[in-house]
Amino acid sequence: MKRSTFWKVFAHPTWIAALTAAGLFAALLGDGWWDSLAWVGMAIPAVLGARGLMVRRNV
Amino acid sequence: MKSQTIRRWSFIHTWTSLICTVFLLLLALTGLPLIFHHEIDHLLGNAPELKAMPADTPRLDLQQLVAAAEAHRPGDVMQYYGSDDDDPNAVFAIMGATAGGDPNESHTFMLDARTGEAFETPSANGGFMMVMLRLHVDMYAGLPGKLFLAFMGFLFVLAIVSGVVLYAPFMRRLDFSTVRPNKSRRVRWLDLHNLIGVVTLTWALVVGVTGVISACADLLISAWRAESMAALIAPYKDAPPLLQRAPATHVLEIAERAVPGSEADFIAFPSTRFSSEHHYTVFMKGSTHLTSHLLTPVLIDAKDLSVTAVVERPWYMDAMSLSQPLHFGDYGGMPMKVLWGLLDVLTIIVLGSGVYLWWVRRRAAAPAKLPKGEVAH
């Protein structure tokens, strides 16, 4: 695959994957702010997935 | 990507997922209540409420608590003892007919550390949540069940990796998070499968891999016993059987002195799977947030209470310990549990849509039957 196509397809997923990973790891390091980082990291995939399900037929 | 390459990956993706899907659905469905087991136990009234007593009420010493536990279940022997994470005045005890018996036959209950009064914790020994746990852990099939589920988890990881590879050709001409609701039901679910699959990727991989590691825990513990423990307890090979244990009163303090800056998590009594026939083994947790998940065992001679050794922690035992929070999702408060549950539901949707897409494609690929009445004469 050409480089440009690769990043066009995988730019968003890579960011999401990295943020989720950072979130999952953050809460292992501490409470309070660290937990909040985890919530943000995990809310991103949860919200994006749920938003996809909301897209309904519009005819 | 060449079309042949795509076809190969597609074959891998289809079959690794189809084989593991039924079991992953079982794991995802039973895992959902397990995320909230703590809250469910409280709702069901299975979490004992200790009496309110003045904050400075003294606690019984360890040997007195052991005696209280033994009095509660005459005939059983102590297997494990530990503090409760919720209530500083509560401790838990696990007892069984023999120290080294099947963990599924053990009986767990709690004690008030100030009075020695015993409280039953029914959900730790049976009932709905226990059924969920057994279905999730070994499907009531013991070690073979665990290893089978570990293999299903491995297939799940392969399905995720091949799914990422296939994401590229599907999404080349589409913007990220495109869902086309107006084309056909199949296209809508294909888009959703791709979108939800790719956004939940990291979470599913982490939960999958840590689940596989946890499912192999029995093997890891055996390896650790053979590798780290065996040499340390070799001098006891010809020792006469332990008939009388020294009182456990100061065991925790002895262990804390042996590993400064750590805190006791639980005690494995002599002859249990986590100890030797001649030792109290105290598992110490680190004092930082991260190292509190890592346990260092201290072997204490059960006859004279001398410290035999601080057992080394091989990397795979650390991996096993860290896998637990990362699999359970219980290390970031209630919001994390709710998000864990949502991601679990999204994963169920990815599994279900995957089967649906396979089914629709299979039907489309089957040779079209001629409608009745048009059969050639």
In words, what does this structure look like?
- The complex is a heterodimer of chains A (59) and B (377).
- The termini of chain A are far apart.
- With 59 residues, chain A is mainly alpha-helical.
- Chain A has one domain (3-54).
- Helix content of chain A is 83%, strand content 0%.
- By secondary structure, chain B is of the alpha+beta class.
- Chain B has a domain at 3-38 and 144-214 and 333-364.
- Chain B is 51% helix and 12% strand.
- Chain B has eleven helices and eight strands.
- In chain B, α6 runs antiparallel to α11 (333-365).
Could you write a compact summary of the structure shown?
Chain A has one domain (3-54). Chain A is 83% helix and 0% strand. Chain A has two helices and no strands.
Largest sheet of chain B: 8 strands, antiparallel
The helix fraction of chain A, in percent, is over 70%
The profile of the biggest β sheet of chain A is: none
Large-scale geometry of chain A: flat
Q: How many whole angstroms does the radius of gyration of chain A measure? A: 15 Å
Mean pLDDT of chain A: 91
Order of helices and strands of chain A: HH
- Low-pLDDT regions of chain B: 370-377
Structural class designation of chain A: mainly alpha
Tally the helices of chain B: 11
Q: Radius of gyration of chain B, Cα only, in angstroms?
A: 26 Å
The greatest interface between two protein chains, and residues involved on each side, is: A-B, 39 and 39 residues
Oligomer: heterodimer
Question: Helix proportion of residues of chain B, in percent?
Answer: 40-55%
**Can you list the strand order of the major beta sheet of chain B?**
4-3-2-1-5-6-7-8
What is the count of helical runs of chain A?
2
How far do the termini of chain A sit from each other? 36 Å
> How much of the sequence of chain A is in beta strands?
under 5%
Query: Which class of secondary structure composition applies to the elements of chain B?
Result: alpha+beta
Q: How many structural domains are formed by the residues of chain A?
A: 1
